[in-house]
């Protein structure tokens, strides 16, 4: 990961009942990073600190390689798109067109044609106030408005909340095609594992305000596997990344490994047959990761 969109070092924030951090994190440029964590784990707070809506008590943040101890300068801030978990009440009494006109003054790169195209694709109702729209309709406007200035960095806090399955699919397709167009980076907070599966290159896991690490999604899918091997449970002692082991029947042991590529290589070199393998579902992987089983080679709290 050479190029970094946002870097956090030693970030800490005391919330009412919870401490967020310390967090050391590098968001790799040019990728989609899925931000996963249970309710209250600190996902929104983390995103708000990246926008200076919330100020950390300790630590430093850099945007595209630069620190801004005061405000994020306008020319940098307008390269960052944001969809908030909650709608912006200041836009309540505006129509989508009026709100866009207001936003366009702020963003020099605002692409009105692209915005109109997105409103059309998402079937966002025209000429009605945003507060009169359904939750999903308003969400579709917000996603369109966040994409319209073609930001280099998109921070999306549960963007699919309220979307019907058709709009959800459309959002996935739009974000995918947006990524194809250049060097954009997307941080996407979500509770929908399928969203991460379809969109994310990296998965960033937060738990009780602590970073459990950032891992390549494909590497997780390639390495976290259930395998059935001829032999007994003592086999596990010599294999890397084994987090569960069980004698399934006489002569067959079932194991879960976080390092399948190495595990299979060692078994192969030892002449021990692998009888069957199953790739874990992403939700199984995340739940084991949340329980403290780390991806191969990762140390606890590692964010780069
Ligand atoms: N304005 C606030 N003042 C004090 N504490 C807050 C505030 N907002 C959030 N918190 C607390 O900070 C912690 C993290 O909240 P945050 O909203 O960042 O979590 P989240 O991971 O986004 O949750 P969810 O998945 O439910 O949206 C929670 O324990 C919450 O109670």
TrEMBL record:
A Gene Ontology molecular function term of the record: ATP hydrolysis activity
Keywords, in A-Z order: ATP-binding, Nucleotide-binding
Tree of life domain: Bacteria
SUPFAM superfamilies: P-loop containing nucleoside triphosphate hydrolases
Statement: the UniProt record of this protein carries the keyword ATP-binding: yes
PROSITE patterns, A to Z: ABC_TRANSPORTER_1, ABC_TRANSPORTER_2
CDD domains: ABC_DR_subfamily_A
Residue span(s) of domain ABC transporter: 1-233
PANTHER family linked to this entry: ABC TRANSPORTER ATP-BINDING PROTEIN YTRB, SKFA PEPTIDE EXPORT ATP-BINDING PROTEIN SKFE
Name of the protein: ABC transporter ATP-binding protein
Record organism: Paenibacillus mangrovi
Source species taxonomy: Bacteria, Bacillati, Bacillota, Bacilli, Bacillales
């Amino acid at each position: 990961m050479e190029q970094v969109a946002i870097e956090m070092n030693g970030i800490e924030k005391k919330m009412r009942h919870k401490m967020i951090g310390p967090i050391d994190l590098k968001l790799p440029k040019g990728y989609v990073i899925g931000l996963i964590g249970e309710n209250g784990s600190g996902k929104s707070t983390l995103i708000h600190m990246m926008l200076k809506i919330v100020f950390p008590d300790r630590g430093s943040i850099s945007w595209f390689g630069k620190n801004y101890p005061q405000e994020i300068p306008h020319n940098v801030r307008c390269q960052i798109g944001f969809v908030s978990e909650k709608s912006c009440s200041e836009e309540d009494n505006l129509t989508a067109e009026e709100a866009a006109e207001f936003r366009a003054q702020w963003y020099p790169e605002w692409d009105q044609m692209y915005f109109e195209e997105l409103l059309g694709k998402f079937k966002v109702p025209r000429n009605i106030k945003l507060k009169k729209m359904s939750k999903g309709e308003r969400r579709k406007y917000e996603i369109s408005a966040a994409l319209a200035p073609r930001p280099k960095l998109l921070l999306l806090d549960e963007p699919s909340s309220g979307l019907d399955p058709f709009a959800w699919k459309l959002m996935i397709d739009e974000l995918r095609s947006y990524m194809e167009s250049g060097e954009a980076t997307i941080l996407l907070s979500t509770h929908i594992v399928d969203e991460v599966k379809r969109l994310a290159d990296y998965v960033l896991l937060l738990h009780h305000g602590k970073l459990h690490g950032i891992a390549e999604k494909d590497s997780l899918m390639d390495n976290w596997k259930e395998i059935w091997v001829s032999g007994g449970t003592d086999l596990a002692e010599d294999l890397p990344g084994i987090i569960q082991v069980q004698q399934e029947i006489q002569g067959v042991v079932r194991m879960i490994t976080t390092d399948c590529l190495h595990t299979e290589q060692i078994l192969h070199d030892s002449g021990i047959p692998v009888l069957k393998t199953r790739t874990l579902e992403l939700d199984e992987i995340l739940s084991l990761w949340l329980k403290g089983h780390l991806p191969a080679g990762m140390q606890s709290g590692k964010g780069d």
